[in-house]
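USER: My hope is that you can spare some time for a protein that puzzles me. I am handing you a single protein, as its sequence and its fold in token form. Walk me, if you will, through where the backbone shape changes along the chain. The protein I mean follows directly.
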Amino acid sequence: MSARRPTLAVVGATGAVGTVMLDILSTREDVWGEIRLVASPRSAGKRLTVRGEEVEVQALAPEVFDGVDVAMFDVPDEVSKQWAPVAVERGAVAVDNSGAYRMDPDVPLVVPEVNADQTRNRPRGIISNPNCTTLSMIVAMGALHRAYGLASLVVASYQAASGSGQEGIDTLHDQIEKAATDRTLGSRAGDVRAAVGEQGPFPAPLALNVVPWAGSLKEDGYASEELKVRNESRKILGMPDLPVAATCVRVPVVTTHSLVVHASFETEVSADRAREVLASAPGVVVQDDPARGEFPTPADVVGTDPTWVGRIRRSLDDPASLELFMCGDNLRKGAALNTAQIAEVVAEEFAGS
């Protein structure tokens, strides 16, 4: 008997991540039977292309989940909180890309290259997708952890404007356009702020600038993005006491997050051996030849799926530590791709049914 091909629902199909999701579903190996596209009532009736076919968008309602095996949610937290349990009640496994369930102890936080086995540990019927910043490094760090045993992480992120949604992208482009008319900008304190005007979702100008803030204010002066890096890394790696220090910075890049990582391990490390470990790890590409100017940059890797790693060095002061630079597209692996990969792992459960 041939395996049954499960039915998939994509909730939030018309959003920024949902649009990337449809491209991913159209280019990866097709494991799905019917694919239903779901969005808010105002988007119902639109026709979107997936797998080369036009599919009409349905309005989000309980009945759209009838007969659905896996439902992927690319929607705001409050929508996931309301509707993921509804999908589960109707018989679907919910794979959620929002932050609603990431730290719920009864919801696994999954990166298939690191902890795919946790997809079956879902007492609430929900599987959560990590934050895009965490995802930009955790595949590489998972591989190094398996080789050396991770002891601590110090992380500085350089996050793209698209991490703040379409408003962030539009704000950056608008600011660049205004700043481009005056080549003297950046020579006097406050001149960029005065020239670009509206800050959009950012607390300071992003054009011609970097902003040491991403997310919302939490206790002790930390930004929410910094705590996500710490807490999510611990959960994914199964290391609840792992010391993690993160500082998140917004930079004038449209899409693709970058990170500088200082990683300490339980044993002495070698830069050459670390390159070998990373080069053989699924979902990781090593680009590391500084003598030839070869290392990953956001402008060169945007639109690709892997985590790109370069500038791999053993710490000058600690033979058990590495310094690395990483880039990952925050809309692909950082959101849509990882969600799709989780869903594909769940789809394998239907292979014998």
